[in-house]
# Entry
Amino acid sequence: IQSHNDDVKTIVSDIKPSTSINDLTSLSINDERESVCDIPSDNNDVKTKFSYLKLSPIIENLTSSQNDETDKAMELLTLDTPLLTSDIKAWKPPILPTKDFTGIPTFIDNDFNIYIVDITNNSDSLENVNQLISKNYDNSAPQPQDMFWHKGQPCIALFHLDSKYYRGEVLDIFENNNVNVRFVDYGNDEICSVSSLRKNLILTDVPIQVNKCRIVGVKPVGETWKEETIDLIYRTILEKECYINILGTNRDKDILYIKLNIPDTSDLANLMVTMKLADYDDYPEIIELFPSFFSD
# Structure
């Protein structure tokens, strides 16, 4: 799915919500640390009469992933105890895979970082997250507190192409009541109206479902990656099950260094060089290297 933001290329998986959640209650949120977005009185995008979220029933038949931490977080959703919305500073970071995995790319940014969902260990988690969010936020109206945001703040945000809500993070605040939001479970950015963001959060114990990856051994032809190269590779690997060979990670453990193999195709790095879309490059310094990456 392409975004209207010209600076990025975005995709969102086609998820059809079917499960539900029970008795989520709102939690007061401290707005003192937040930047105030100027809201003109004639702003047609903001409803002057706010209605509160109508959040209904507990989830049914929720399947868990093979990952222990994600399992525990998702299992909490099957308990009879009512779940409270939470005020947090950030979503839980993604769990680094401990060995090679099969993954589905969701997005490529301008620096040629590829965002990949691990379906070997988390085959159902992203779908379950989106089902719950869709059930409880679709057709919701903003509350007064939803008009005030600061950079780095987690949110639930509406993606304009499918009119569905997803977990997000505010990257920047602009004039005219617009903010730049990263959809954290996919990697793409979107310019959103503040009226399409929600502060009441659920699933705060569930880690981000996508890993930020970087292919080793290649560099752009020229100083930066060309938009047409990103577009072509994006179309080539979009939503395909690719085999990911993990070489290591960086010091902050927020980027995986990988080799990516496309189904029925050779290594992506070799393919790009053959097509003259990239040049070979030295491997980066692997700051962190886990022995388990090389074990069965």
In short: The longest strand covers residues 164-173. The chain is about 15% helix and 25% strand.
